[in-house]
Amino acid sequence: MRELQEKIALHGAAALTDSELITAIIDNQAVAQALMSQYSLTTIPVEDISRLRMSCGMGLAKASKITAAIELARRIAKTKTGNVDRIQSLEAAEKILRPLFDGLDHEECWVLFMTNSGKVIEKMKISQGGLQATVVDNRLIIKRAIELLATQMILAHNHPSDNAQPSQADITLTNRVKSAAELFDITLLDHIIITRSQSYSFKKFGLL
Predict the structure, then answer these.
(1) 85-201: which CATH number, 3.30.365.10, 3.40.140.10, 3.40.50.300, 3.40.50.1950?
(2) Least confident piece of the model among 74-83, 138-147, 164-173
């Protein structure tokens, strides 16, 4: 552990391997190595602490430390997205959206409400579902857009399966929200599917 502390002091935590990062958190190299041989950083079951504590003989104390560390990182990432107040590219949209879905094992659907200039007025979670699907009420989306005087929106949801390809239900939802928005001169700029390792833009692939 002393060697890891010195490595962090000299080179920063970014110089540590994934296994070393876990070791630094739980102070047990053998358990950290066993954990990383079974999972990657994106697949550690942090949303289910009972499952995590059973992994590699970790126990509740070490599992709690990992869960707390990942939640802290998630909150910091969400705070940093506040620096992006205008969306002018897919990359900027992803920078705001990705932290909303990191670590989730269920689907959620969010909407970014924006002005004509792309300034983000509000981020709003509009539904939460199971692993397979989420139910979205397009009336709720349009109602909130009108209340905020938003003229543009970006729809986003995650696929816990890590398959970013849209389903027919995703396409139907996009068309329904787009048509409803147009009745009030509101533009649906994009629908972005976020997974652990990739994303899918409806606009980029010509579906919007």
Answers:
(1) 3.40.140.10
(2) 74-83
